[in-house]
Amino acid sequence: MATGESMSNPTPLALATLAGVMLCWIFFAGIFLLRRRPPKATEAKRDRFASLGIFLQMVGYFLVFFQPPRRPFLPPVAALSGVAGIVFGVITVGIAAVSGWLIESAIRTLGKQWAMRARLVEGHQLITVGPYAHVRNPIYTGMLGMLIATGLATEHWIAMIAAIVIFAIGMVIRVRSEEKLLRAEFGEEFEEYARHVPAVVPGIY
After folding, report:
1. Treating both helix axes as pointing N-terminal to C-terminal, what angle do 12-33 and 138-154 enclose, rounded to 10 degrees?
2. Mean pLDDT (the chain, rounded)
3. Residue 46: phi, psi to the nearest 5?
4. What is the model's pTM?
């Protein structure tokens, strides 16, 4: 977290907000570490270019966790007293909680088709139910939400903006890599789905 005079004595509200987001990160990690492993599926196709997207997303996360030292560029919002600070904290933790739930729901819906890298497995199906009925890549929606919530909780605004930009570039690379495979596999079925369902954030992308 950024340090400095304004953050050397963080308010109880700021600490509670950060603690709430960290609990959501523990849940986020548990989704991957403790999830029930489905039967292993045989890989049919893979797009290796998506690895660049994974790297850029990790750089984005690194920026919000390990920020430039000494002092924040702007004063911390969570230091606001009264209702404003409480609303800020609730919204921040809420974003992290909803993001964690979205990721868990998406991975559970995918089952054996989920993988870290862009790939198709034998018998791959186009999933359009659950969270996939609302966005085509709900895992990335949730990951973006976790990034934003962490940036809000640590309150280093320039670092957060830089992290979002870098993360978004990586996210677009991964979306395009994965959807290139889906387009090749499902053709017009996927195109029809893509016409009606946004990729990551409704109304934006």
Report:
1. 150
2. 85
3. -145, 145
4. 0.86
Q: Are 134 and 62 in contact (CB under 8 A)?
A: no
Residue 37's pLDDT band (cuts 50, 70, 90): low
CATH 3.10.20.600 fits 10-196, yes or no: no
φ/ψ of 166, rounded to 5, equals -65, -45
E-assigned strand segments in the chain:
43-46, 119-121
Q: Which of 156, 110, 114, 143 is nearest to 25 (CA)?
A: 143
Q: Give, in order, the Cα–Cα distances in Å from 5 to each of 17, 74, 136, 202.
A: 19, 12, 43, 39
Task: Pick 26 or 3 by higher pLDDT.
Answer: 26
**C-alpha distances in angstroms, 200 versus 3, 4, 24, 123, 172?**
33, 35, 20, 25, 9
Tens of pLDDT, residue by residue over 100-151, are 999 999 999 988 888 777 777 778 899 999 999 999 999 999 999 999 999 9
Tell me whether residue 86 is exposed, middle or buried, using C-beta atoms within 10 angstroms of its C-beta: 0 to 12, 13 to 18, 19 or more.
middle
